[in-house]
Amino acid sequence: MGATKTDHFTESQNELAILAKALGHPARIAIIEYLLKVDACICGDIVNELPLSQPTVSQHLKELKNAGLIKGSIEGNSICYCINEPGLEKIKGFFEHISNHLAKKRNECC
Amino acid sequence: MGATKTDHFTESQNELAILAKALGHPARIAIIEYLLKVDACICGDIVNELPLSQPTVSQHLKELKNAGLIKGSIEGNSICYCINEPGLEKIKGFFEHISNHLAKKRNECC
DNA sequence: TATTTATATTGCAATATTACGATATTAAAT
DNA sequence: ATTTAATATCGTAATATTGCAATATAAATA
């Protein structure tokens, strides 16, 4: 054991879990926040922003990219990273959906 | 190594990461969706809804509770679980914040 | 009080994640 | 052509997560 039983769940559930999991590390939250703060795509500089080694940061960037939360394009000898909106909209939609449901049936129990 | 360097990040970053991580598994997404679907708190029955053993489900419920995404109160010999709104609002706020920022500076690059 | 029912905990094996040093790659600059 | 700079990959150790059988706990019911 140890492996998640992805095939027992719906595609949507697995997709949301992948997105959430990608944000389940403070370094990756920090990367998203940094990309947001600097107003634009950032070519280089991400490594210097984080208290982690270059290979570790590279790995975290790869995970965010695989999950569809950021995208990176080659820009000379550095890479230009920025937030990938569709990915973020998808997970944001999940929370909005929950929030709307909760608003409708407030305090019915508990 | 292998342990996350939580002390290198802000409290807010760690908090958001814990919330996201708790949702980083399809079974836990399924639990949240189920609690939402049934309109109210559910006493029992969660185990039967998931394609996992009772101990495994119990463990996932514990993680959601620790992260502050659900709450459970004892109700006779079963336990009544429901969504914990403050936890969900916190992570929802993060995505709204991102979305607002992105709306302001659309297509500046990439 | 014994049994049933619902949930939690323990212990453990399989797998995944985190982190980093060493090394590779690739494009710019000299 | 070499060197420099930025990023990726490999290898590996430490730790965390996933899943379940077995067992414990605690309340309801017979």
TrEMBL record, chains A, B:
CDD domains registered for this protein in UniProt: HTH_ARSR (cd00090)
Protein name, entry field: Transcriptional regulator, ArsR family
Residue ranges occupied by any HTH arsR-type domain in the UniProt entry: 8-106
Alphabetical list of PROSITE patterns matching this protein: HTH_ARSR_2 (PS50987)
InterPro entries: ArsR-like_HTH, HTH_ArsR_DNA-bd_dom, HTH_MetalResp_TranReg, WH-like_DNA-bd_sf, WH_DNA-bd_sf
The keyword Transcription belongs to this UniProt entry's keyword annotation: yes
Domain of life: Bacteria
Entry-linked Gene3D superfamilies: Winged helix-like DNA-binding domain superfamily/Winged helix DNA-binding domain
GO molecular function (one): DNA binding
Alphabetical keyword list: DNA-binding, Transcription, Transcription regulation
